[in-house]
Amino acid sequence: MKVYSNRTIGISGTLLLLFAPVMLAAIASAALQALPQPRSQGGQSLEESIAARRSVRRYADAPLTQDEIGQLCWSAQGITDTRRGFRAAPSAGATFPLELYVATEDGVFRYLPEQHALERHLEDDIRRGLRRAGLGQSMLEEAPAVFIFAADVRRTARRYGERAERYVWMEVGHASQNLLLQIVALDLAAVPIGAFRDDDLARVLRLPDGQQPFYLVPVGRPSANPNANM
Fold first, then answer.
1. What range defines the domain where residue 10 resides?
2. Which of 146, 94, 95, 87 is CA-nearest to residue 113?
3. Span 56-72, mean pLDDT?
């Protein structure tokens, strides 16, 4: 037996002290879902994606693949300059106030641009709650995935003061348009939504202090019935 700070610790306790950092690192790693490597080339031109983009509100009953989710996350907030850490969408002063979440039947995940991975944020399927906070818009519950743009305006305000919120709204627009065009390029469908009760949505998402929701984008495969998408 060894004595540490007047307390006696057995062999098992000593091993726990030695390996606790390794165990904690393993737990943290297990909480991350690595995403497939994003592609920087595709079969559809930018001009074709712009021309084909439409708001679609009804989706087939089929989940998105991990490849699709990873590509969509990358298009909105992925690292495109590994040396300087710049992202796919411009950010005022590279202050990066945005947080991107993905809500599916498996829970809610936060996108980590530096690791190109998903971190579990919530265990629950919150899409019904998104629908309630989103004024009853059914696509928020029916879409297989809802991409949620949140932001911490303070990150930008430290540099730009009272103009920060204006810059954050611009950045949400940049990132969401990237997302919408990538959705078209992947033969998926979506509709951007800004109509929701802010406080209710923040509670449903259990956002950390300082973060607020800005935009919702339900995504899925287009419904086979073209009249259902109007």
1. 2-30
2. 87
3. 97
